[in-house]
Every structure is written in structure tokens, then in C-alpha cells.
Design brief:
The chain is mostly helical. The chain contains eight helices and two strands. The chain is elongated, with a radius of gyration of 22 Å. It starts with a helix and ends with a helix.
């Protein structure tokens, strides 16, 4: 084990084994620590199939690192979950009042993120296999929500809708941008490479792009005196959600 490609190869191989909890790679010293409840012989056979000239250095019982990691991840995920759910409520209510599809779309994205963080909390302390399954469920949920949103955009495009309140779009999105930036900072600070945590980072990165898009749409609505930019950003939001969902589904493989 002396390069990132071999690290990925090992991760994919061991993710097929249930009760493998965490992998700690040290590429410089070519050492891999495996935290697990699985049979050592099963893990050994899986590694031998990769033909990387591995050898067992030592084996001992411990739960300190896993428990510490579980506690830290849980606190982080609860923080970002609450922030996202609060802004889902704020953006949905202001979006309906201001008749902004952009804010409604962003609020639904926030709701989906809250769902993802909730699933990630379930995955904390679980096996690698369980975490990949959580990432898969999150991806499918995002796709379903995005399709429903696009249908609503089409309905609004075909029917007459009053002009969105551009000032509400801009102000609310600015606050949402700040909240999502905080969430992304906290997630990146954790430096986690686990599938459920990386899925959370993908969704939050998309949220920041979406917030900026809604702000631009608000400016264009005011400048052009048209609700079309708001509908366009709504479609873009849901397409970004679908893109993020497919990236997350790749993590689950």
C-alpha cells in the first residue's frame, strides 16, 4: 500500500464486508489500521485477494477511537441538520409569501439536506457498508425531490404568476448563504472521508452555489421586471440537486 489508488482499492474491497467500522490509512509508513467486529480471517482473505503483499502487525481490542469519532460526527451533523431545517422553514414561508420559485426550490433543497444529515446520523458509528447504503438512500431521495420541483416549475411557467418580491429573494438568500458557508466549513474541518460525510459536503457545496444563483435571479427579476429569471433559477437548482445526487450515488458503490 503506497499510493492513493491502492487505498481506494482496499476501501472498496473491505466495504463489501459487514462489521468493518473504520479504516485508518498511513501511506507514509504503509500501515493500515482496521477497526472492526468482523472475523479477522475474513478480512485477511479479502486483503490477500488484492495481492498487495500484506502482513498482520498486531491485533488488539479497542473502542476509544471509534467512540470519539462517533461523538464528534454526531455533534457536527446535529448542528448542520438544525441549521438546514431552520432555513427550510424560513425559505419555504418567505418563498410562498414572495411567490419566488427560487426560494421555494432552495427551501426544498434545505429539507432534502436535513433528511440527508438525519440519515448520516443513523450511519454514525455504523459499518462502511451501512454508510454506503445511507449515501445511496440520500441520493435517490434528492432525485425524487428534484423531479417534483421541476414539475412545479413547469406548472408555474404555463400558468400566470405574480412577479416575485426580489428584495425578499436577495435578503433571505444572503442569510442562507452565510448559514451554508458555516455548515461547509464545519464539515470540511472534520476531514472525514467516509461516504455519508462526503455526501453531506457535496450537498452543502451545491447549496452555496444555489444561494448565489437565487441572489442573481432576484437582481434580474427587479431589473427585467419579469418572473422568468426566478423560474430559470428554480430549474437550475433542481438540476444541481440531481447532479449532486448522482455524485452521491457514486459514493455508495
Amino acid at each position: 500500500m503506497d499510493c492513493p489508488s491502492e487505498e481506494n482499492l482496499i476501501t472498496m474491497k473491505l466495504s463489501e464486508i459487514d462489521n468493518v467500522m473504520h479504516l485508518d490509512f498511513n501511506l507514509e509508513e504503509r500501515i493500515l489500521k482496521i477497526y472492526h467486529y468482523a472475523d479477522v480471517e475474513i478480512i485477511s482473505i479479502a486483503l490477500k485477494e488484492l495481492k498487495l503483499n500484506e502482513s498482520l502487525i498486531s491485533s488488539e481490542e479497542t473502542d476509544e477511537i471509534i467512540n470519539e469519532s462517533k461523538s464528534n460526527q454526531s455533534k457536527l451533523l446535529w448542528t448542520v441538520l438544525l441549521l438546514n431545517f431552520v432555513f427550510f422553514v424560513i425559505e419555504m414561508s418567505t418563498g410562498l409569501i414572495s411567490k419566488s420559485m427560487g426560494l421555494v426550490a432552495d427551501s426544498l433543497d434545505m429539507l432534502a439536506d436535513s433528511f440527508v444529515y438525519g440519515l448520516s446520523l443513523i450511519a454514525v458509528g455504523g459499518t462502511i457498508l451501512k454508510k454506503k447504503r445511507i449515501a445511496k438512500y440520500a441520493g435517490y431521495f434528492q432525485i425524487t425531490l428534484a423531479i417534483m420541483g421541476i414539475v412545479e416549475v413547469i406548472r408555474r411557467f404555463l400558468a400566470y404568476e405574480a412577479l416575485p418580491v426580489f428584495s425578499t429573494m436577495i435578503i433571505v438568500s444572503l442569510f442562507a448563504l452565510i448559514a451554508n458557508s458555516i455548515c461547509l466549513y464545519l464539515l470540511q474541518k472534520s476531514k472525514s472521508k467516509e461516504a455519508h460525510m462526503r455526501a453531506s459536503m457535496i450537498f452543502t457545496s451545491n447549496d452555496i452555489i444555489i444561494n448565489l444563483g437565487v441572489i442573481v435571479a432576484g437582481v434580474l427579476v427587479h431589473w427585467l421586471k419579469s418572473g422568468l429569471p426566478d423560474l430559470i433559477i428554480g430549474v437550475i437548482v433542481f438540476l444541481l440537486v440531481i447532479q449532486g445526487a448522482f455524485r452521491t450515488l457514486k459514493l455508495s458503490k
